[in-house]
Amino acid sequence: MISKNETLADEVLDAHEIEQAPVDVFGIATRENISLCPVTKCSSDFFGRIEYHTEVNRFLLYYPDNLDAAETRVRFSVAHELGHFFIPEHREVLMSGKTHNSQPGFFCDEPMEREADAFAAALLIPSILLEKKMARDSVLTLEQVLAVAKECNASRECSAIRYTKFTEEPCVVVISENGVVKYGIPSDEANAMGYWISKGSKIPTCSAASSTDSTTNITEKKFCSKTWFPTSFREIDMWEESISLGYGGLILTMLSWDAVD
Fold first, then answer.
1. What is the rounded CA–CA span in Å between residue 81 and residue 123?
2. Cα separation of 212 and 130, whole Å?
3. From 29, 114, 170, 189, which residue has the greatest number of CB atoms within 10 Å?
């Protein structure tokens, strides 16, 4: 089920008459009278911040702008801060004078950060684009999901998570590091079937995701559901697609299977 914040992102895109990717997040901020404040000398753990200044009745959006920051990361950071701006409850907090450095990227457990992440992913990867892709192929492969990321100038993690939360088909996206799950996000259908993966759980040793190989090729494998979900009462055929993200030992995995009655 699409969240209200993902729907809000679609409404923002409609209001700004944006129908094509990649979405100009800087343009949206400018048209909303938000002052853009690039931070050129910032640490690697700075992702962004948005503040409301009562003396000028204006929002200031700070984002990393150094040579080490990947373009997709910067775009997601700006989209995340726009989430705080557009989500009414977040905006109310900002206008009360409260502020903090954001932690976008789906790792943070804070509700406001996760809500801004969902908004950011939906802003960068519009529903209308996914609907067109899935009208042709109801189930997207990891290769197709990565193509969406490239088209939208978004990160591969962002694209995979956005697709998983958007689709009505059963699938799970997993980000792992050194054979341990950092987080797993199931589609609504997968969650309803009881297929979800806990943070901190071990990756199956027979999975390509257990490797820290830096190859950029997608590894595909068919397996029994018990491999990844040993406590499940079902035994069904599943498909695993994994690829190294090329940094931090992180591996992106998509698990998918045919719907089961």
1. 11
2. 30
3. 170
Closest C-alpha to 47, from 88, 91, 108: 108
What the block records as the tokens of 147 is 């193509």
Q: Is 213 helix (H, G, I), strand (E, B) or coil?
A: coil
Select the more confidently predicted residue: 237 or 99: 237
Distances (CA, A) of 113 to 49, 100, 168, 214: 12, 11, 24, 29
**Are 123 and 14 contacting, i.e. CB atoms less than 8 angstroms apart?**
no
Identify whether the C-beta of residue 209 lies closer than 8 Å to the C-beta of residue 184. Answer: no
Half-sphere exposure of 100 (CA within 13 A, CB side): 8
> pLDDT tens digit string along 114-152?
899 999 999 999 999 999 999 887 889 999 999 999 999
65 phi, psi to nearest 5 deg? -140, 50
Task: Give the Cα separation of 138 and 145 in Å (integer).
Answer: 12
